[in-house]
Amino acid sequence: MTKPLVRAAMIGCGGMARWHIRQMARQQNTTTISVVCEPSADAYETSSQVFKEAGLQPPPNQPDLKRLLAGYAGKLDAAFIITPHAYHHEQTVACMEAGLDVLLEKPMVMNAAEARSLIAARDRTKRLLVVAFPGSLSPQIRLAARMVQSGELGELVTISGVVWQGWKTGTIGTWRQAPEVAGGGFLFDTGAHLLNTVADLAGQDFDEVSAWLDNRGCPVDILAAVMGRLKSGAMVTLHGCGDTIRVCQSDVRVFCSKAIIRTGVWGERLEMQRDGEPDLKPVEVPESLGVWQQFLAVREGTLANPCPPEVGLRMSKLWDAIKASAAKHGQPVKCE
Question: Which among 143, 181, 286, 320 would be 20 to 30 A from 328, CA to CA?
């Protein structure tokens, strides 16, 4: 029996949304994007071209979310929210209260207080909420986290992660460098993947952190160095460089007493070297078509939610502590 298509609303049609549209276009047998919500006519027109290139009719645009939810009542199943960070909380609550399941772009919200509020809204509405961290939703990170946390690889000793991108130049004049809308700079934007994936692999909260942020003459942080200690006592180093050549890459190493894992903040690879082996070797995992495919698997009940709002709260607490430590010139801060 053919499953009915999931009727989705895409909230936001910027550059990241266009990347997701291309991925979702490969899943036409599961999903139809019924409507989009984009206040910028230029952004909507650019996204319409992406639909056309994929052989799809561009969906209509209703720029006002309140009107969209009222006009499409009973005609939608889910929403994919891909908007500037400051709007995530209000838009997600509105969609869940309208009866929709939600896939929400990272970072989930601006701070821990908003994260707790969103968890309460999820519990009140009984809707599904998945945070679109590609690391958490990747088979690579899910497998690596299970191996680390099961004890199969021995004691977790340390984790070292780095992410780098020519972010500063590429975001000048955009909302990503407006603190009141973005909530932070490179470490809260691209670097959010680093914070989340490392915490995912550890499977536990941070106990305390020391952090230094450098704005490099911008309104938001561009460079970041963070040292932390997990609840277990294992140590972590995090390095974010948003002022480099025009690339976007990452590297994460997990050091256990019986093995070393190498992966990336998006789950873009998984390699392992066990004790006695000469080199890192690739670990095979199932292919993934990205976060929307994984969201549908959670929605269908074939995958336990790897990235619920509790994950967003965990990262929010870490980000709040990083900001607090950086404001004190690296003084250690507890992750309350």
Answer: 181
